Amino acid sequence: MRHALQMSLRASLLAAGLGCAFLFAPAAQAAGPQTQYQRDVEHCNTTPGIDKKACLREAGAAAQAARQDSLTTPSTQAEDQNRTRRCDGLPAGQREDCMKLMDQGDTRVQGSVQSGGILRETTITIPATTGS
Asked: Which of 106, 98, 87, 111 is nearest to 7 (CA)?
């Protein structure tokens, strides 16, 4: 149970941190960088339950990337690679569980980047070992 909770927490924190950058990407391309930055700052200041400091930092980074014309929306392939890389640093058994969590097959997803984070919950049944 503790392992599942840790995996769920790790994945949600990673998703929140990595997902914040993508929150600002499409909108910043449509509006001018300064206008979009003002909207993002307003979002950070008025949305309850989010890490305001991190939100403002991401808004600034997105505005800078937009000014440099380097703000992009990732391809499906890039998102798949990111999902795999999130799990690569874990030991083998945990890596398999992490990949199951990232695949979202039997995963319950709650929350959103806009609300401050995404919580992914997967139940992984581990059969008991039989003792002699």
From this structure: 98
